[in-house]
Design goal:
By secondary structure, this protein is α+β, with helices and mostly antiparallel strands. Helix content is about 25%, strand content about 25%. A hairpin with a 6-residue loop joins strand 2 and strand 3.
């Protein structure tokens, strides 16, 4: 929720994370979308990064969203690399946010 103008909105019975508000909001991450893997994160990677990520066995093309270039990763808490997960989410945000929203990332305090 530290990303500019982001919010959590329940969709399809799952938490989705969006940038913007109202009808113009855009999803940049969804949790728990795979019926056999309830603990997953779906995100939109950079097109160049997608090629490398899909070669990693931890990532898979999720039903429906995969056709649009989205990927998913299991988020089993004991095994999560939280820094990597934060990077994937921020990259996804950058893929769907407006230029002015992406520009606001530069004004955030560093972690």
């Amino acid at each position: 929720m530290a990303l500019p103008e982001s919010s959590e909105v329940p969709s399809w019975g799952r938490p989705s994370f969006r940038v913007g508000s109202g009808a113009g909001s855009r999803i940049f991450a969804v949790v728990g979308t795979h019926p056999n893997l309830p603990h997953t994160l779906v995100f939109k990677p950079d097109i160049e990064e997608r090629r490398a990520l899909i070669e990693d066995a931890r990532f898979f093309s999720p039903p429906y969203a995969g056709a649009g270039g989205w990927l998913a990763i299991g988020i089993d808490p004991p095994k999560i690399d939280w820094v990597e997960l934060a990077e994937l989410i921020e990259t996804s945000y950058r893929q769907v946010a407006l230029k002015r929203q992406v520009a606001l990332l530069g004004t955030r305090p560093s972690r």
